[in-house]
């Protein structure tokens, strides 16, 4: 693996505002720097923690954030397009989401998830920002909604991709990016590595989804942005690239999709 000081990595999806990092957030940022992770997007899952996300972006010039409500986050009142647009009026906000469909857990009724998903896409189209899409065990439903809502008008990212090539190709055909997380490094996940090998280099992003899904060799521990280099190395290996090439490519893709 290349000297970390030679790398410039971009963690396209993490949750640094989460309480998991409250005791050592400063050290987490220090380790990011040591491992060549120059930038990251800390992604929203609710409205309650938006002040924490805004503060992170204001305190660190290498952190941006998104605005959105996770498909399985229970709320008393559903967000509106107007609310999402208003809350996104901050220079550090670069995306809408994460939003989407999740049939792995059913905390929120699927019909309500779909309505919420469409609302987020419509807000993103008004704002000209990409949508960060959460899709778990809902491949056909997610692609159907993305197609019907014409995601190409604003662009989007299939976050923590875990589906098959047909799903990836459908998203790519709509102009979306595919983001891979630590699960692509898991020993029993060759099918996902095969998908990564097929995704065009100019559409790949890398992420940690920290504090979740720590990659090998840190699997089972709390994840953090410093570990995104292992995702980069895994994808570089399956595509026959150096990690330096993968870092440069994925960082350029992140800068482009987020408009940074």
Short description:
This protein has nine helices and eight strands.
List the helices and strands and how they pair.
Blueprint: E1 9-14, H1 25-34, E2 37-42, H2 50-59, E3 63-67, H3 81-87, E4 93-102, H4 110-127, E5 131-136, H5 139-148, E6 156-158, H6 165-173, E7 177-180, H7 190-198, E8 204-206, H8 228-239, H9 243-258
Parallel strand pairs: 1-2, 2-3, 3-4, 4-5, 5-6, 6-7, 7-8
Helix pairs in contact: 3-4, 7-8, 8-9
Key features of this structure:
260 residues, TIM Barrel, 9 helices, globular
Could you explain the architecture of this structure?
This protein is α/β, with parallel strands linked by helices. The chain has a single domain, classed as Metal-dependent hydrolases (TIM Barrel, Alpha-Beta Barrel), CATH 3.20.20. The chain is built from 9 helices and 8 strands. It has helices at residues 25-34, 50-59, 81-87, 110-127, 139-148, 165-173, 190-198, 228-239, 243-258; strands spanning 9-14, 37-42, 63-67, 93-102, 131-136, 156-158, 177-180, 204-206. The chain has an 8-stranded parallel sheet with strand order 1-2-3-4-5-6-7-8. Strand 6, helix 6 (165-173) and strand 7 form a beta-alpha-beta unit. Helix 3 (81-87) packs across helix 4 (110-127), helix 7 (190-198) packs across helix 8 and helix 8 (228-239) crosses helix 9 (243-258). The protein is globular, with a radius of gyration of 17 Å.
């Amino acid at each position: 693996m290349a000297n970390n000081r030679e790398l410039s990595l971009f963690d396209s999806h993490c949750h640094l505002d989460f309480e998991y990092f409250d005791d050592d957030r400063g050290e987490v940022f220090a380790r990011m720097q040591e491992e060549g992770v120059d930038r990251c997007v800390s992604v929203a899952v609710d409205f309650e923690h938006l002040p924490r996300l805004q503060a992170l972006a204001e305190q660190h010039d290498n952190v941006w954030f998104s605005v959105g409500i996770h498909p399985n986050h229970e709320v008393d009142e559903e967000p509106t397009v107007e609310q999402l647009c208003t809350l996104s009026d901050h220079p550090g906000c670069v995306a809408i989401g994460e939003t989407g469909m999740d049939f792995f857990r059913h905390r929120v009724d699927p019909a309500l998830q779909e309505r919420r998903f469409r609302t987020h896409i419509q807000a993103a189209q008004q704002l000209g920002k990409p949508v960060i899409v959460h899709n778990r065990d809902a491949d056909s439903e997610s692609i159907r909604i993305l197609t019907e809502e014409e995601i190409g008008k604003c662009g989007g990212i299939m976050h923590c991709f875990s589906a098959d090539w047909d799903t990836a190709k459908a998203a790519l055909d709509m102009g979306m990016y595919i983001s891979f997380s630590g699960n692509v490094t898991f020993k029993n996940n060759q099918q996902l590595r095969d998908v990564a090998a097929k995704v065009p280099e100019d559409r790949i992003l890398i992420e940690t989804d920290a504090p979740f899904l720590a990659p090998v060799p840190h699997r089972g521990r709390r994840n953090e942005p410093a570990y995104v280099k292992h995702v980069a190395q895994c994808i570089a290996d399956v595509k026959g690239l150096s990690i330096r090439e993968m870092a440069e490519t994925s960082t350029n893709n992140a800068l482009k999709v987020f408009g940074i």
